[in-house]
Amino acid sequence: MEPTVRELFNRIMHYEPVDRVPVVHWGCWDEVYVEWQAQGMPAGADEYEFLGVPRAERDVGINCELFPPFDYEVLEEDEESRIVRQGDGVIARHWKDRSCIPHYIDYTLKGAEGWDEYKKRLQPDPKRIPADHDERIHKVQASGSPISVFTGAMIGFVRDWMGVENLAYLAYDNRELLGEIVMTQADLVCWALDQVLPKVKPDFGSGWEDICFRTGPLLSPDIFAEVAVPAYRKIADKLLEYGVDLYLIDCDGMIDALIPHWLDGGVNIMLPVEIGAWKADPMAMRKRFGKALRIYGGIDKLEIAKGRAAIDTEIERRLPLMREGGFVPLPDHKIVPGTKLDDYRYYLERLGEVRL
Fold first, then answer.
1. Which pTM value belongs to this model?
2. Gyration radius (Cα) of the chain, Å
3. CA 336 vs CA 99, 176, 181, 328: distances in Å
4. Which domains does the chain have, with CATH numbers?
5. Tens digits of per-residue pLDDT, 46-92?
6. Tens digit of pLDDT for each residue in 216-225?
7. 236, 193 in Cβ contact below 8 A?
8. Do 171 and 219 contact (CB within 8 A), yes or no?
9. Contact (CB, 8 A) for 247 and 205
10. Dihedral sign for Cα atoms in the order 178, 179, 182, 184
């Protein structure tokens, strides 16, 4: 009997022998679905069923974000966009006809100003647990996909709530407060793990950051080590209490300068390792950090969009890492507009044919 995707994932991430890699789907930009419908995908189809592959992961976590969220409010609107107050308290312009980052206009959290309002929304509350949580756990366990539990965003949420400029000033003007904000989130995550992990053992903790751009992190690595690593360590230790020894962080951009600090904090899987304009190299990362660092990603999504010859080359160049272990291939972000449906199916088929 062939191993499930979940079983393959766990064997690979623990450097156990396998003869193949799991084939999963992470998602596409909205425009891609419109293009694919013109190429044969039925409108409204479940993309995973249509493609015949499972999700990259299934989450059993509970709400570790602002609770309750701020009231969503439309402040202005025209034909192209809306200016709204988001659930995270940020005022931003959202465009109606394109997928892109909003234009951020103003923030409720500006350092000490606004923190009390946010802090009270980052406290444990039984209402954070969905009423159907046990049913969700059962469905996730039956899915065959790797199971994750959400572990928050130590710096990424702060960046969202107050913006890059305010975060930069806070890191230098009031590092004690930044540390308090980060540890408040870590405490909430640990409470949440205590609610979830007695019921189900996930394969990995799954955090999110997105705090790097094309030349490096948005925050000094030294400051990151000072304020964030203790919070990561606290969460990692809580996961280990329940026997969960894999801890993933999803961070776009050039992450190299932060990897040593994530490893110090107990994080041992990086997703998605974007190739990007800076040409990130998963194999170079393995040489630098050794087998302590696992990778979930590392397949250049832009090469998939170039057609079958490029797909073959991209898969071929990752074979040494697949054979070494600790590497589960996945496109390094959502599939981009211009990717033909047949070419993406070819990518999935070719990956499924790989034998190690």
1. 0.96
2. 21
3. 11, 41, 35, 20
4. 5-65+108-353 (3.20.20.210), 71-107 (no CATH)
5. 999 999 999 999 999 999 999 999 999 999 999 999 999 999 999 99
6. 999 999 999 9
7. no
8. yes
9. yes
10. negative
